[in-house]
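Good morning,

Attaching, inline, the C-alpha cells for the sequence recovery test we're adding to the shared suite. The designed sequence is right after.
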C-alpha cells in the first residue's frame, strides 16, 4: 500500500445502539465525522502523517517533536490497529474536509497495571475551542467501558502545566490531579512540569 488511496466515505460503518463506529456531528458550521480505527485505515496513512506533522509544525504540546515519514507512520498505525484488534486499545479519528483533524485513544497498560488505561487526545489548531475535545473524551471513555479487556478501573493522563484549557476540560469531566512532576517536558527551550490526572471508572 502506498498510503495514497482516496478516503472511501461512502463505505464508512454506521453507529449502532451498542457499538459506536461512526458518527457525524456539527460543531458550529462544521460537520465532523468521527470513526473508530479499522484495518482499511492503513491505506490512508498519508492522512495520519499529515495530521501528526501539522502538530509538529505548530510546536503543539505533544511529546513528538520530529516529523514522521510515511513509512514510520504506517508502522505506527499498524501497531495501533493491532492493539484495537486485541482489545487493548480503543481509538477514534475525526475527519473534516477529507483531512484528519483529531485523534483520541485509550490503551491498557500491562501485567500488574492492566487495570489502568492511558488517555491521549490531539486536535488540530483550527478545531480547538469548539467542544470537540469534550466530545471525544466522552466517546472514548464509553468505548473503553465496552471494548477493552479487561475493562479499566482507572483512566490516567499526563499533560503539561501550561495546558490550562485541557486541564479544565478534564476536571469538568471528573478527572483529578494526583501528581506533579518537575521538568518533564521541553517546550521552546523551557522545562515544564508534568501533571498527572486520573479518573476512577
Amino acid at each position: 500500500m502506498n498510503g495514497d488511496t482516496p478516503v472511501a466515505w461512502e463505505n464508512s460503518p454506521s453507529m449502532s445502539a451498542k457499538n459506536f463506529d461512526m458518527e457525524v456531528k456539527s460543531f458550529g458550521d462544521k460537520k465532523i465525522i468521527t470513526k473508530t480505527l479499522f484495518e482499511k485505515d492503513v491505506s490512508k496513512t498519508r492522512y495520519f502523517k499529515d495530521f501528526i506533522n501539522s502538530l509538529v509544525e505548530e510546536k503543539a504540546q505533544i511529546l513528538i517533536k520530529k516529523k514522521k515519514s510515511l513509512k514510520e507512520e504506517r508502522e505506527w498505525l499498524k501497531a495501533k490497529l493491532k492493539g484495537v484488534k486485541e482489545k487493548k486499545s480503543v481509538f477514534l479519528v475525526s475527519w473534516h474536509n477529507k483531512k484528519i483533524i483529531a485523534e483520541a485513544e485509550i490503551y491498557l497498560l500491562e501485567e500488574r497495571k492492566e487495570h489502568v488505561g492511558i488517555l491521549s487526545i490531539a486536535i488540530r489548531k483550527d478545531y480547538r475551542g469548539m467542544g470537540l475535545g469534550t466530545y471525544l473524551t466522552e466517546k472514548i471513555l464509553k468505548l473503553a467501558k465496552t471494548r477493552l479487556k479487561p475493562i479499566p478501573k482507572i483512566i490516567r493522563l499526563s499533560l503539561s502545566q501550561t495546558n490550562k484549557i485541557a486541564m479544565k476540560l478534564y476536571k469538568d469531566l471528573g478527572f483529578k490531579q494526583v501528581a506533579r512532576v518537575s521538568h518533564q517536558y521541553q517546550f521552546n527551550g523551557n522545562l515544564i512540569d508534568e501533571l498527572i490526572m486520573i479518573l476512577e471508572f
